Amino acid sequence: MEALGEKMADARAQIGRVIFGQQVVIDQVLTTLLAGGHLLLVGVPGLGKTLLVETLGTVLGLDSRRIQFTPDLMPADILGSEVLEESESGKRSFRFVHGPVFTQLLMGDEINRASPRTQSALLQAMQERKVSVAGHPHDLPSPFHVLATQNPIEQEGTYPLPEAQLDRFLLQVNIDYPDAESEREIVLRTTGLRNARPSAVLDDRMLLDAQRLVRQVPVGEKVVDAILHLVREGRPETSGIEAVRRNVAWGPGPRASQALMLAARARALLTGRLAPSTEDVVALAKPVLRHRMALNFSARADGVTLDTVIERLAADLA
Questions:
Q1: In this structure, are strands 248-250 and 145-150 parallel, antiparallel, or unpaired?
Q2: Which of 216, 241, 265 is the last residue of a domain?
Q3: 286 and 158 share one domain
Q4: Does one domain contain both 240 and 252?
Q5: Which segment of the chain is annotated as a signal peptide (predicted)?
Q6: pLDDT tens digit string along 52-65?
Q7: Which of 52, 88, 140, 196 is 20 to 30 Å from 314 at the Cα level?
Q8: Does residue 195 belong to any structural domain of this protein?
Q9: Could you tell me if 24 and 123 lie in one domain?
Q10: DSSP for the chain?
Q11: Domain range for residue 245?
Q12: pTM higher than the cut 0.85
């Protein structure tokens, strides 16, 4: 575990050479990958979401590809398709041409600009690590992670992601504007003749070993109780919290509990600890729950935000 901690510290340092002022975001991204999950990055254009994903591919030593989602993108453009070929003897047969999804780190850029039909093409890949084309299953590489970027839904030309697909993302990380000092550093260090380039720290085999190690991290009963309390109190039908019953249309399912358990273990290892604490659960409450809950109409009309409701939930654990 100590060796893993040193490697992750090196990875954070390499990413920090390129991405400035977003340490919390970097830690949440690395937590997602250590836990073996997929990540949704949400923010307005120009905040470095694409650069962050590209940097991760280099630092973690993973084969990576990028898909630019557009309204005319079709499922076959992601998964691949079968083509009819004729041999020299005249025999015809179908050959499967792999799409860009057959990679270890798939970047889905502006995923909410594609139609719901195309978005759904990733569902099986994200959950089962395989795809079916023309009735034939095809296994994806291991490890396999989807890191998708999304513009805020309010922007023109976007489609809301279906709830079933949102639930497949381990974390939803919202990226805000950098502070003044970080933005000054960005301006000074990225407009010269040369930009800093990160170096590889891990490879795919080391990442898989780290993911197996995360699942072996012991979790105390207090942390398990905190996870279950947070998730179950987020359901308006059974919650004892007035803010939840009044404002939430539907709450998180059991997959949220699984995500919190894995992410808490990964966050503990990332910060050099051998077991997670309730502090990890509180820190991960928003990125785990914000895409697994929905406000009702009256709450949205009153200007209530999900982050505010989740803060009220997490306050019981502090």
A1: unpaired
A2: 216
A3: no
A4: yes
A5: none
A6: 888 898 999 999 89
A7: 52
A8: yes
A9: yes
A10: -HHHHHHHHHHHHHHHTTS-S-HHHHHHHHHHHHTT-EEEEE--TTSSHHHHHHHHHHHTT--EEEEE--TT--HHHHHEEEEEEE-TTS-EEEEEEE-TTSSSEEEEETGGGS-HHHHGGGHHHHHHSEEEETTEEEEPPSS-EEEEEE--TTSTT--PPPHHHHTTEEEEEEPPPPPHHHHHHHHHHSSSS----------HHHHHHHHHHHTTS---HHHHHHHHHHHHTT-TTT---HHHHHHEEE---HHHHHHHHHHHHHHHHHTT-SS--HHHHHHHHHHHHTTS-EE-HHHHHTT--HHHHHHHHHHTT-
A11: 218-318
A12: yes
Across the range 246-250, mean pLDDT stands at 93
Query: What are the pLDDT digits (tens) for 141-176?
Result: 999 999 998 877 666 667 778 888 888 999 999 888
Do residue 120 and residue 259 come from a single domain?
A: no
Does 268 score more than 90 pLDDT?
Answer: yes
